[in-house]
Amino acid sequence: MTDHRSRFLRLALRVEALRFGQFTLKSGRQSPYFFNAGRFDSGVAMAELASCYADAIDAHFAEVDLPAFDMLFGPAYKGIPLATALACEYARRGRDLPLAFNRKEAKAHGEGGSLIGAPLAGRRVLIVDDVITAGTAIREALAIIAGAGGTAAGIVIALDRQEAVDPATSRRSAAETVALEHALPVVAVASLHDLLALAGADAALAAQRAQLIAYRDAYGSVIGD
Ligand SMILES: O=P(O)(O)OC[C@H]1O[C@H](OP(=O)(O)OP(=O)(O)O)[C@H](O)[C@@H]1O
Ligand SMILES: O=C(O)c1cc(=O)[nH]c(=O)[nH]1
């Protein structure tokens, strides 16, 4: 497993952003695990997370000659601190990227509207979010960017849960579906596959493995090892 994957998973377990139990997802599915990006709730934890995102992005785009994106967008709510922390990490690495995010409810006073930050028009925008399950949040973000005159250049998430939108009809994951439909790269720092690999090698996680596999077999894009 590449360094940024295992660093991220161990960090997420340490700050209890990754937890095991029974959770209801936005899609209504009952999941034996949950990734709560709200638990990166200190400067050090958020800075470490941002460095994992930047390493994953740089590894993915290493072969591209021109900068593949020139702006970051964080969808409300959890994408907002993630995109902001990533912008700070890129500044630390010598790249100053414009940054924007949205409000879930438009504001009628003051500056008004639902977009905050640098203008999206004419930019190649990298969407920064925490997790993809069914892809609903990412589709909304794509519509916001297009509506504001920007061009989506890619999507980066911390965790790809690798779930099919409707497993009865297709086992293609939501992330792969969005990638194909919009011809966009979807970069995940880590995936359920990586979490299962870690669970297989780590005695403290071994007890979770059977439930993760049962869930993956019910909803996942990948079945079997
Ligand atoms: O792929 P999906 O099925 O859309 O699920 C993943 C999305 O769900 C959560 O967002 P939520 O809408 O709960 O908002 P939050 O960021 O305000 O917590 C999460 O932060 C992802 O953005
Ligand atoms: O599908 C979701 O709603 C979801 C899954 C997850 O692991 N984390 C999260 O914030 N949302």
Walk me through this protein's architecture.
Pathway: Pyrimidine metabolism; UMP biosynthesis via de novo pathway; UMP from orotate: step 1/2. GO terms for molecular function: orotate phosphoribosyltransferase activity. Belongs to the purine/pyrimidine phosphoribosyltransferase family. PyrE subfamily. The protein has 225 residues and is an alpha/beta fold. It has a single domain (3-219), classed as 3-Layer(aba) Sandwich (Rossmann fold), CATH 3.40.50.2020. Helices cover 40% and strands 25% of the residues. It has helices at residues 3-14, 43-61, 79-92, 136-147, 174-182, 192-201, 206-219, and strands at residues 18-24, 30-35, 71-74, 99-107, 113-117, 124-132, 151-160, 186-191. A six-stranded mixed beta sheet has the order 5-4-3-6-7-8, sandwiched between helices. α6 runs antiparallel to α7 (206-219). The radius of gyration is 17 Å and the shape is globular. The two termini are 15 Å apart. Bound molecules: 1-O-pyrophosphono-5-O-phosphono-alpha-D-ribofuranose and orotic acid (ORO).
